[in-house]
Amino acid sequence: MKDKLINETHIDLACGIGKREGYFGIDVKDQPGVDCVMNLEKYPWNIESDSVEDIYCSHYVEHIPHILEGEDKRDGLIQFMNEVYRILKVGGRLNVIAPYYTSIRAFGDPTHVRFICDMSFNYFNAQWRKEANIPEYGINCNFDIKISYRINNEMALKSEEVRAKAFVHDWNVIEDIIVEMVKI
Fold first, then answer.
1. Nearest to 114 by CA among 73, 60, 175, 151
2. Using CA of residue 71, residue 75, residue 77, residue 79, what is the dihedral sign?
3. What angle do CA 160, 181, 100 make, to 5 degrees?
4. CA distance linking residue 77 with residue 92, whole number of Å
5. Chain-centre distance of CA 122, in angstroms?
6. Which ranges constitute the DSSP H helices of 48-124?
7. DSSP 3-state of 156
8. Local structure of 112: helix, strand or coil
9. pLDDT per residue over 120-138, tens digit each?
10. What is the pLDDT of residue 1?
11. Exposed / middle / buried, residue 67 (Cβ in 10 Å: 0-12, 13-18, 19+)
12. Contact present, 124 and 81 (Cβ < 8 Å)
């Protein structure tokens, strides 16, 4: 598959053995459920530009190194997001799930190299960068962003007021951040 460009509309990036049903699975390791073995830290990916409608990416972005091998010295997450932007159609969606930065799960895994919070994704919206007077940092993408959270079971039973306070002040309340990004 190295010579032929992938032209799939629904892709599960870094799918591992838990590929999402109905998606084309890409992972660095050849294992059950993986449709294509690809190093997601080497760019460009062997995927058609402007061809993908939906990308699912669960528990991968926290593993992306800050500096990747090669000449492009932009942060690895920036390179990843630029590449996702390249392959998505306008209106295409990227769904990212990652351990939230105040969760012990974010710190407990020794293979995590970055901590993910709400602010992490603002940088991938051009209007936010402009209003915040943030330099481009080599970011070529522009996404509308919606954020939600997976919270621990105990907190799910609490009132909105108690949850809102806990979200800001307590650790291990939010387990995962769930981000929906739509290419503008």
1. 60
2. negative
3. 50
4. 19
5. 13
6. 76-87, 104-108, 118-122
7. helix
8. coil
9. 999 999 999 999 999 878 9
10. 44
11. exposed
12. yes
Beta strands 174-183; 88-99: pairing state: antiparallel
Give the list of residues 6+ apart from residue 64 with CB closer than 8 angstroms, or none: 41, 76, 77, 80, 113, 114
Closest CA to 36 of 20, 28, 49: 28
Q: What is the pTM of this model?
A: 0.93
Cα 102 from Cα 168, distance rounded (Å): 10
Q: pLDDT digit string (tens) for 18-70?
A: 999 999 999 999 999 999 999 999 999 999 999 999 999 999 999 999 988 77
pLDDT of residue 2 exceeding 70? no
C-alpha 93: how far from chain center: 11
> Which structure tokens are listed for 137?
């940092």
